[in-house]
Amino acid sequence: MWWLLLLITVVVVAFHSASASVIESTWEVEYKYWWPDCKEGIVMAINGQFPGPTIDAVAGDTVIIHVVNKLSTEGVVIHWHGIRQNGSPWADGAAGVTQCPINPGETFTYKFIVDKAGTHFYHGHYGMQRSAGLYGMLIVRSPKERLRYDGEFNLLLSDWWHQSIHAQELALSSRPMRWIGEPQSLLINGRGQFNCSQAAYFNKGGEKDVCTFKENDQCAPHTLRVEPKRVYRLRIASTTALASLNLAVQGHQLVVVEADGNYVAPFTVNDIDIYSGETYSLLLKTNALPSKKYWISVGVRGREPITPQALTVLNCVNATTDSRPSHPPPVTPTWNDTERSKSFSKKIVAAKGYPKPPEKSHDQLILLNTQNLYEDYTKWSINNVSLTVPATPYLGSIRYGLTSAYDLKSPAKKFTVDNYDIMKPPANPNTTKGSGIYSFPLGIVVDVVLQNANVLKGVVSEIHPWHIHGHDFWVLGYGDGKFKPGVDEKTYNLKNPPLRNTVVLYPYGWTALRFVTDNPGVWFFHCHIEPHLHMGMGVVFAEGVDRIGKMEIPDEALGCGLTRKWLMNRGRP
Amino acid sequence: MWWLLLLITVVVVAFHSASASVIESTWEVEYKYWWPDCKEGIVMAINGQFPGPTIDAVAGDTVIIHVVNKLSTEGVVIHWHGIRQNGSPWADGAAGVTQCPINPGETFTYKFIVDKAGTHFYHGHYGMQRSAGLYGMLIVRSPKERLRYDGEFNLLLSDWWHQSIHAQELALSSRPMRWIGEPQSLLINGRGQFNCSQAAYFNKGGEKDVCTFKENDQCAPHTLRVEPKRVYRLRIASTTALASLNLAVQGHQLVVVEADGNYVAPFTVNDIDIYSGETYSLLLKTNALPSKKYWISVGVRGREPITPQALTVLNCVNATTDSRPSHPPPVTPTWNDTERSKSFSKKIVAAKGYPKPPEKSHDQLILLNTQNLYEDYTKWSINNVSLTVPATPYLGSIRYGLTSAYDLKSPAKKFTVDNYDIMKPPANPNTTKGSGIYSFPLGIVVDVVLQNANVLKGVVSEIHPWHIHGHDFWVLGYGDGKFKPGVDEKTYNLKNPPLRNTVVLYPYGWTALRFVTDNPGVWFFHCHIEPHLHMGMGVVFAEGVDRIGKMEIPDEALGCGLTRKWLMNRGRP
Lengths: 573, 573
Known about the structure:
Two copies of one chain form a homodimer. The first copy, chain A, contains six helices and 34 strands. By secondary structure, chain A is mainly beta.
């Protein structure tokens, strides 16, 4: 196959080359009117742009971003999704975990080294600001790229609601909870179509008219202009608030070569599933015909797809701009064909040359994911604790020993109801709220088993893509039903599990992962679905607490809650 | 007349009686679904209530309110409108002026003495949060009340939009500016009707149906239950974002006895004008018939009244609850009958016993109010400066001498274009932005002349109710056209001008006021129309800067911007 020639064994190296440079920018964050899906809405823009500017760095570079909060009354932070922040945990950008929100009118400077090549992105991590459009791509190139290709494109995928995030937050936090519903549109690089369809002419009598775009329309799709018979790298990231997606390129096969910033053993597919928080690189060899056009289509999986496909076009350079693809867009696989999705997930293994995971773990968490009630508020809970992120960032409370800032008692390492039936709604739907964390010494190997279950009502188990901050983990395996400790560990792939920062937990199943506590700091680990996280679906890992206690953390990261008070009083009699 | 017997000469006394008590509450601020005008919206509620709880204090009491910010991502403050905050300027609750916004998840404690009896209210003073419904009544009773009445009612008046304040803020801050339009509804004690009319049965074929309320409907008007032939005190406050209002009680005359917490020489009217930021007490003697009902109506003045009247009912105790007033509600005076409004304003003079103002002033500001453009953003400016409130509160920057926190250069004391034609759109529409303030020594007498002008386009001059913090001022007079320095001062009423904290500036006219700099602190003085303030229509007075430099200010009030940095570094090498 053509791509076999392109890929050489990968060696994972962290680059701190002498030629490393500094990428420095000032970003003003504010609301702006925008037409993401041809209907006017309000987005969170960076320097007047939506999505935000792409960071294009080389491994080893130092990135310095001065974030200026130009919002009226809201705080803001930015999380650099996929960057491990080794030595700079305060720059991870998770409000309440690693820093205080930046106040309106103030500036906070993120400074970190992008030590490893990969396809990443960044996004808001306070309230549901990511869902308001605060995101953009973060590409880290390898100074010695092993992949060979002739050109590349970034495709940042997101979903879009017409209701404001403030209204959404209230809806989800209300008693009874009001569900926000499915997104109105899917966006590719911030562009979608709500009122029209690009492909409607295949479907006369359909509900929507064919789109007609004017020049500079904010919702007009970017066309990918390509040469025939060349190899392109598509860098795909999903920052959806809710939707699990499938992406296909008409008439082309896709070679998956990277996932979450790590090379994987290349494999060929017709389409990929991509969950919120994941990134992929795909190699695509364009067909021979120089005047053809092909749909790139993005559709919903895992939930009943009320939202129409997002479409853009792969356009050979000789194709006229006014012509259209001659066939309908690829059909998204059936939304509930979970077996198909699992089959895709299982194809992903590490590229040659990646270190294997340690054979044994020192600690194991079994985290039951449940939907529950807390005083009739709907919550998502992990081992029966729904996370309440405190006003004082954990990183600061641990640094300065402020023990009243959060619950000192850790949540349970395993779910305590041994006979919990994951196939049914919870027998006792009541949960607890808390801000307790899991604390690990440095240098140990931790296994986490994510265990899915039935939701509160009906026969439903939802998809949860779990994302870890400050780390990659090895994905050791997936299983159906209830995890059997002492048994299912034997099925783990310890030979070539992929390194990732996000992994999907399938309905009624379990997912096992392993990581090494090699990064002193406090790290969020949570479902990347924005409403689920808003409803408490996350846990927090503190790593090397003694090291955190000696860490240099900029005061500006801790100017809220009890750390502000502590810092104001230090050195006083 | 009946009321002559009720009113005795008033002596103004500040009470710090030995029997003074402490009123202490914890208030949780959060968004909540509500039906203020029979259509579901989102309000900023306090302890789950809209409007917020009424504070009912006695002069001399200490009020302690622990405000807990339960919002997701927004800061919050509360301003105690009408309370002078003598000795506690940090508790005035003006974000960026006297304190930092309270961060989500944090608690800030306001503690102040209500030293003087009066009808007051409180409200949000950050972004446009007042317009989101963050308000309530603040009644301070006199231990020796001179007025005699049999009962009392509070009527808190507001206006309501269906668009969120976040969208409104963006609209006003956009280029070009998008006007938010007139309010959808007027509310009395947080209750109005959008889809129906209480009085529609007088108007068959009208646009709206007669309201039918269910029990506990949040939009069902409170009925004022009264006995015949008794005297009631109506305490009225207007916290509208935009609307100037007129209030009438069908079949009853109203005796105006108090304005903004100061007794006025009683006078009788059929209706009152009330501008945003003003309060009044009215005495009303109920008619003799024990089974009658009367409309209380509130309508718009000063702007073309697109918004329907707000209505509630004065119900004699024997009237059946299902019957209706037998005649249509009072008709609001013509919106643009400014002469009628002026005539009302001029009736307001101080009650006997109030001290006269000093005869001379030491300083004079002539503040031209103009609508302008700043880089094509629409702004309101005072002497060609549109106020930008800094991220660091003035009170803190002055306390700690942080001279880079705001523009040290004061804005001009007079408008510098001598031949400025107030009757026409500005010849040069461009303005400047700034954060400079006016600084006064303690113990001097300051005159302020507010000068109105034509707006940017067309032949229009708008109403601006100006509100001062930390003070009452004497309203010395009103005039038409351009103020003539050295001439118009001779028309000032120095005999019995009313003491107020809010005064209206009429279209194309001027308003003169005088105050004594007897309250060390930093005090906002601004147009009380929320969108106008959002667009820069205010100035700031610093009073007794040397005293501020020695003041005790709680650190928690200054936990943002440069003061946070300063406080974190004090006492360090």
